[in-house]
């Protein structure tokens, strides 16, 4: 008890000592910090100051110099302020920051430089600034440089910074970040560059950086990404681009990054190489002219997510060398062209989702050389065209289920032999796609299909050779609701053909009175041939079909 009293007494004494003894710069408001009684909160905002006051008290914890007319930050301006954790310099006229101006700031929570006139960050202007030891995600510490007409961040401008988020942008000036700008930085929660008209990152800007948790680039036009631009980034959790117009991405553009292995990947043992998998690479709402081959080569990425982008071209082997990949997701993108082998090197990726993309053309061997894709869904979006080229699915050796679905206003164009080489597929379901005629060889090459389901396809005519020449290629066929085969002699012939071909089948037909009849291999009420029948003239070409693209593929 007496100890407690003593403590209290000394606290009060220290406080009163501080209140009586501290230096408060002329015209500023000062008061002891409520959290740390022996520290001082100094407020000099809005006082037309043209320079930093000289007589700052060493106990200063927080210094507000915002909304003044300060133009220069000289070397060592804050040298004798060991406790300084909040430094607000926003809305001044700062044009020049001397090298080492902020040296000895080792305890920063907030350094606000927004709204100044900085055009260049020279070498060492912001180097060696350290965040407080307890900076965290919940209470992040930052240097904010937004709202400056910044055009160049020189090499070593932010070298050796620690435990801080570095925030740039919201300016109307094109920005160039030079090589080594972030050299030696460590434990950086976030580097964010958002809202500049254009951004050029010299390659090797991140040489020797460790633990940049999040790199976020958004609302900008990103100039050419050279090979190994991001090389040196080590222990990254996420790289995120959104609303970015990419100019050109070179091969190996996103290579040279090591992502922090995630705990989940350490728990799930899906394969030896994946034990080190980590990180998310996320591009959304962006324009990508070309996704090059080998862009991510030799990174330990766990997830690659591309959503809501316009991607004009995906080159062959775009995802090669992602040896630890767990999840590849392409959702709701507008995709112009996918080159052969685009997804070609994917091996044993447990989750591949290609959904709701507007794909105009799925080329020959887009999946060539892939392994382990067991389910693929191609779902069309409204009002887009999807064409399946010959051999579109070739290379999907392990596919079990292929699911193709249309949508209103979509066009679906199936080229000859589109399904050829789709050897292993067990279930092929096609729905909501207009297929009025199943022409000769439509399904040629489906050698092992167990179940073929055709629903809501408006099928009204089927060529005898639609399923190829080999009986037994398909075991079960279901032509269910939404087709309009007439209950006539033609259909009866078809059923006889089906009988020799499939072990089981279900066909619905429409009677003269518009009633729906369900016919199976053992039904007793097949249509008879008592009426005269007309022989349909078959088109020898494939009819174009309407469909929009939505493509989901799942590896199990
Ligand atoms: C400093 O004082 C101004 C009013 O004079 C106030 O708006 C501002 O919030 C104060 N700064 C801090 C850090 O409390
Ligand atoms: C961006 O800058 C404009 C004008 O300089 C300002 O009004 C706006 O608040 C800034 N936005 C952000 C997010 O900082
Ligand atoms: C990807 O980034 C976008 C935009 O920044 C965000 O909305 C989305 O949640 C991110 N996706 C994942 C899986 O992190
Ligand atoms: C789809 O194809 C049709 C016919 O080829 C064409 O008229 C239409 O403009 C195409 N639609 C789109 C969205 O490309
Ligand atoms: C099938 O035909 C019906 C009626 O003729 C029509 O309403 C429907 O849109 C057609 N479906 C497709 C997928 O073309």
From TrEMBL:
<dbReference type="InterPro" id="IPR001611">
    <property type="entry name" value="Leu-rich_rpt"/>
</dbReference>
<keyword id="KW-0732">Signal</keyword>
<dbReference type="InterPro" id="IPR032675">
    <property type="entry name" value="LRR_dom_sf"/>
</dbReference>
<dbReference type="Pfam" id="PF13306">
    <property type="entry name" value="LRR_5"/>
</dbReference>
<dbReference type="GO" id="GO:0005886">
    <property type="term" value="C:plasma membrane"/>
</dbReference>
<dbReference type="InterPro" id="IPR003591">
    <property type="entry name" value="Leu-rich_rpt_typical-subtyp"/>
</dbReference>
<protein>
    <submittedName>
        <fullName>Uncharacterized protein</fullName>
    </submittedName>
</protein>
<dbReference type="Pfam" id="PF13855">
    <property type="entry name" value="LRR_8"/>
</dbReference>
<dbReference type="InterPro" id="IPR026906">
    <property type="entry name" value="LRR_5"/>
</dbReference>
<feature type="signal peptide">
    <location>
        <begin position="1"/>
        <end position="19"/>
    </location>
</feature>
<keyword id="KW-0433">Leucine-rich repeat</keyword>
<dbReference type="InterPro" id="IPR050541">
    <property type="entry name" value="LRR_TM_domain-containing"/>
</dbReference>
<keyword id="KW-0677">Repeat</keyword>
């Amino acid at each position: 008890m007496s100890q407690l009293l003593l403590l209290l007494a000394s606290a009060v004494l220290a406080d009163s000592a501080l209140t009586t003894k501290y230096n408060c710069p002329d015209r500023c408001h000062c008061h002891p910090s409520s959290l740390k009684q022996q520290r001082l909160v100094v407020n000099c905002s809005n006082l037309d100051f043209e320079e930093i006051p000289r007589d700052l008290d060493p106990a200063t914890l927080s210094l507000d110099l915002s909304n003044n007319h300060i133009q220069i930050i000289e070397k060592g301006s804050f040298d004798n302020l060991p406790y300084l954790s909040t430094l607000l310099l926003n809305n001044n006229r700062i044009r020049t920051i001397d090298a080492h101006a902020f040296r000895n700031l080792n305890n920063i929570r907030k350094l606000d430089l927004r709204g100044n006139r900085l055009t260049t960050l020279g070498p060492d202007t912001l180097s060696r600034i350290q965040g407080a030891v307890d900076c965290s995600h919940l209470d992040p510490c930052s240097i904010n440089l937004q709202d400056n007409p910044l055009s160049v961040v020189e090499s070593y401008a932010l070298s050796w910074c620690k435990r801080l988020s570095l925030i740039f942008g919201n300016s109307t000036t094109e920005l160039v970040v030079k090589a080594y700008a972030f050299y030696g930085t460590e434990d950086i929660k976030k580097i964010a560059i958002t809202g500049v008209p254009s951004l050029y990152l010299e390659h090797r800007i991140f040489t020797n950086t460790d633990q940049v948790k999040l790199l976020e680039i958004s609302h900008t036009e990103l100039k050419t990404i050279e090979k190994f631009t991001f090389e040196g980034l080590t222990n990254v959790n996420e790289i995120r681009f959104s609303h970015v117009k990419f100019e050109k991405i070179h091969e190996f553009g996103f290579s040279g990054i090591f992502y922090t292995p995630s705990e989940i990947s350490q728990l799930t043992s899906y394969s030896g190489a994946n034990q080190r998998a980590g990180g998310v690479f996320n591009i959304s709402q962006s324009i990508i002219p070309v996704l090059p081959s080998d862009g991510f080569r030799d990174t330990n990425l766990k997830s690659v997510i591309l959503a809501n982008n316009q991607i004009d071209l995906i080159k062959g082997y775009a995802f090669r060398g992602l040896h630890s990949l767990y999840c590849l997701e392409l959702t709701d993108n507008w995709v112009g062209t996918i080159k052969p082998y685009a997804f070609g090197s994917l091996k044993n990726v447990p989750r591949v989702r290609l959904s709701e993309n507007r794909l105009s053309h799925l080329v020959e061997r887009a999946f060539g050389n892939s392994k382990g894709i067991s389910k693929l869904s191609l779902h069309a979006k409204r009002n887009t065209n999807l064409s399946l080229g010959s051999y579109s699915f070739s290379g999907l050796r392990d596919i079990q289920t292929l699911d193709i679905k249309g949508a209103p206003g979509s066009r679906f164009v199936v080229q000859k032999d589109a399904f050829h080489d789709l050897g292993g597929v067990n279930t092929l379901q096609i729905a909501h796609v207009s297929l009025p005629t199943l022409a000769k060889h439509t399904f040629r090459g489906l050698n092992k299909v167990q179940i073929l389901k055709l629903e809501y396809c408006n099928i009204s005519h089927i060529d005898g050779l639609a399923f190829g020449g080999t009986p037994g290629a398909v075991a079960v066929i279901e032509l269910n609701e939404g087709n309009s085969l007439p209950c006539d002699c033609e259909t009866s012939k078809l059923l006889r053909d089906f009988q020799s071909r499939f072990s089981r089948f279900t066909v619905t037909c429409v009677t003269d009175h518009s009633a729906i009849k369900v016919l199976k291999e053992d039904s007793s009420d097949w249509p008879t041939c008592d009426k005269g029948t007309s022989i349909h003239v078959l088109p020898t070409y494939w009819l174009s079909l309407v469909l929009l693209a939505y493509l989901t593929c799942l590896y199990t």
